[in-house]
Amino acid sequence: MLKTLYNTYLDLRQELRLKGIPMYQLEAKEILAFALDIPREQFNEREERIIFLKEQEKIDSLVRLRLSGTPLPHIIGEWDFYGLTFEVTTNTLIPRSDTECIAEEGIEFLKQFERARVLDLCCGTGCIGITLLKNSSDQCTCLFGDISDYAIRVTKNNTVKHNVTGRAITMKLNALEPYAPVIGKFQLIVSNPPYIPTADIETLDSSVKDHEPILALDGGEDGLMFYRNIAETYKDALTKNGALLFECGIGQSDDIVAIMENCGYERIKVIKDLSGINRGIMGFAPNK
Predict the structure, then answer these.
(1) Which residues of 104-117 are buried (b: 16+ CB within 10 A; e: fewer)?
(2) Last residue of one domain, picked from the residues 22, 50, 68
(3) pTM of the entire predicted model
(4) Is the domain of 157 the same as that of 42?
């Protein structure tokens, strides 16, 4: 029997809820909008639309994929961050709402500049740097660096998607290598580096360890190797009064503050996410 979009949504929402999908309401709508090629903002307007057999088969195949453990962003190929939609692939870390507090801090910092250079190091999808460009002066530019060629490609696609190609440069950069002066200096360096201790990766939820790139997860023995190298070598990449802004994992903030203090950073602050968890660390360039 043919069903309407609304009834299909109700049934799918219930199925996902019973299978333990946390955001079952959101995911039901996302799957249906993707399967039927309906703009999300028009979903409610089309509730009485009839779902035909071929469409139901496509919906069912997507649901099977989701219930097998594939993250929804990998199924639909995109995900939202700070009100913007970004291309996502299996070769990039999925943008997460926890990271939005880092973008917010960067946006606030850049308000003091009419013209500024930003470095988004370990850029992944480019979601942080692009969000900063979309919410700052048109004279602000961003260099996006990542060790992964796949990530660089996705970032390029996202700069095109969000019309910031004229203000963006992508470059292959290894955040574990020393800062190369040829790339210049920056008012702000922002980085969400890999921070999971190597031994902890196998304990992660299968939706993460089996579907997201190890390159974007593995932070070395204690999860802090990227923070040590970036804090030490990239302090020379900051202009006077420039800032280094990190995202960090739960329970890592004290260690990262200590790393930055040992490197001479000043006015170090801890940034909390919406859940009250220490999610970011910001420090200003050492006085030289």
Answers:
(1) bbbeebbeeeeebb
(2) 68
(3) 0.92
(4) no
| Same domain for 234 and 97 | yes
- Between CA 34 and CA 223 the distance in angstroms is 36
Domain stops at, among 37, 68, 99? 68
Residues 48-103 pLDDT 10s: 989 999 999 999 999 999 999 999 999 999 999 999 999 999 999 999 999 999 99
- For every residue of 190-223, DSSP letters joined together read EE----B-GGGGGGS-HHHHTTS-GGGTB--TTS
Q: Are strands 141-146 and 186-191 parallel, antiparallel or unpaired?
A: unpaired
Which ranges of the chain would DSSP assign to H, the alpha helix? Answer: 5-18, 24-36, 53-67, 72-76, 100-110, 127-134, 149-161, 206-209, 225-233, 253-262
Q: How confident is the model at residue 288 (pLDDT cuts 50, 70, 90)?
A: low
Report the amino acid identity of residue 82. Answer: Y
Residues 101 and 34 in one domain: no
- 231-257 per-position pLDDT tens digit: 999 999 999 999 999 999 999 999 999
Amino acid at 108: E
